[in-house]
Amino acid sequence: MTRSQDWFGRDRGVHGFIHRSWFRRGLPDHAFDGRPVIGICNTWSEFNPCQLNLRDIADHVKRGVWEAGGVPLEFPSISLGECSIRPTAMLLRNLMSMAVEESIRGNPMDGVVLLGGCDKNTPAMLMGAASVDLPAICLSSGPMLNGKYRGQDVGSGTMVWKYSAEVAAGRMSMDDFLAAESCQTRSDGHCMTMGTASTMACLIEAMGMSLPGAAAYPAPDTRRRALAHLTGRRIVEMVREDLRISKVLSRTSFENAIKVNAAIGGSTNAVLHLKAIAGRVGIPLDLEDWDKLSRDVPLLVNLMPSGEFLMEEFCYAGGLGAVLHELADVIDGSAMTVTGAPIASYAEGAEVHDRSVIATRSEPVLEESGIAVLRGNLAPKGAILKLSAASPALLTHTGRAVVFESVEDYRARIDDPGLDVDETCVLVLKGCGPKGYPGMAEVGNMKLPRKLLERGVEDMVRISDARMSGTAFGTVILHTAPEAAAGGPLAVVRDGDMVTLDVPNRRLTLEVSEAELADRLRTWEPPRPPDRGWYKLYVDHVLQADEGVDLDFLVGSSGSEVERQSH
Question: Do residue 170 and residue 127 come from a single domain?
């Protein structure tokens, strides 16, 4: 008996009568005869332009569900538009996961299709679905077509940071900047750089939670509609096979994803999202796993911000299947997928059609990629650095700290000609972690001081408890834990302190004595916490960056059973 029959079954007496009668608004009698009811969680929103094509995608999913003998019922979720929500979409990732979890658990569905795309939507939906553990499958909105400006490709996000620096340095006019802006977005879809949206789509496919090819097809490509149809067909089969999330996701799935992240030059945000998803399915995943598992995996995918191409070329070059083929001796091909076959099947017959986009292991884009996990007295619980985005010359560096107590302090002073800073300094930003912002905003890739940009300086060491956009680049140390607002050592760094970054030895050190550091922490006072609403619930219960920034009471699963009736 399907789960939905507990609502609709003809043997359920008055309760079945009530539920069936409410749903008889176009559904035929045979919709209630035990066919799998498939929920389609659609995060379409006009406030989230990255996902404007999801109404169309949902229609094609429904066709596949009907064709396979299921009953599709679409339902909404809150939608997190990365470029519109204040103070940051990450503040609401956990709230969205709660909404998805309770919608799945509380409604008469046997399986669910998760339609997302923009950075936080896909991980939030998978977190929620994992805590219910019904059969589920993901499908993203797909990347935009390449932006084009004066004969050059414009990558969303990445070129914004570069053009902004050019304007600040006086090398690009505001008219040209605005002209480039109008050329960046040519179609529906999420960022076409290897930002967080593309990264998570790739990692979801690498973990076997979407059908092969789902990560790379551009949003306007008609193959994405066909894939949506096949996704609808497959979820019905998964219900009949009882192929739940817990049967797909394993420790091996996450290890494969970490290795793939290094090969594609993926976003640092994936560290937080994979940890949170793993927490929902009860799989141990530590910060050190990112460093240990990716150390020997080179950068193979030549995409912005770590390279020169965009997702459209990645698709034409062979997509994720081609990357999995190149990593055949690195990943564990036995990991299960939503197809019912192992992940090795996703690479069967895959070929690389453009070696300038997807390189070989013997001649990679970069020898060292992945995420470096740093520890020391400045980051007792860890901090991270994206190796493929950093400047090699700065990976071993000691400099004088220039400290900003908040993002407002930073914005007010960074372009001040009188700011006491040079290119050897280390920019330090506080108060931007999970509790401090709140929500851990993408402000870690701090713009360099204007007076240094005008001199041609392109990178500096930057340290914060914040995140950075997956489209960003630079020698940026992120996710410093514990964060400043939780009383971590970052809270008491002062102007003039010397800071040492030693990436080869994975160390991040504040050059002050233990006694001095202890004295400073004793006199530190925490910021005033929020007093109501979601902000208060979030700050009271959010975990630190090394733990995935989930809420402490959401870690784990509650399952799919709801014993009490509504009437």
Answer: no
My answer on whether 43 and 76 are in the same domain is yes
- Which residues form the domain of 470? 390-527
CA distances from 566 to 182, 456, 563 (A): 51, 66, 10
How does pLDDT run across 283-299, given as a tens digit for each residue? 999 999 999 999 999 99
523 lies in a domain? Answer: yes
**C-alpha separations of 414 from 170, 338, 428, 449 in Å:** 16, 49, 12, 5
- Which has the minimum average pLDDT: 21-25, 336-340, 399-403, 406-410? 21-25
Model pTM? 0.96
Statement to judge: residues 179 and 194 lie in one domain: no
What is the total count of domains within the chain?
3
Closest C-alpha to 70, from 255, 240, 289: 240
Q: pLDDT-based confidence at 475, cuts 50/70/90?
A: very high
134 shares its domain with 196: yes
Peptide bond just before 72 cis, omega within 30 deg: no
Closest CA to 387 of 305, 465, 314: 305
d(CA 498, CA 386): 22
Residue corresponding to tokens 């290795």: 259
Q: Give the end of a domain, one of 133, 162, 184.
A: 184
Same-domain status, 319 and 425: no
CA–CA dist 206, 82 (Å, integer):
23
Contact at 8 Å (CB) between 194 and 301? Answer: yes
User: Are 170 and 233 found together in one domain?
Assistant: no
At 63-122, the pLDDT tens digits run 999 999 999 999 999 999 998 999 999 999 999 999 999 999 999 999 999 999 999 999
Cis peptide before 438 (omega within 30 of 0): yes
Whether 266 is covered by a domain: the verdict is yes
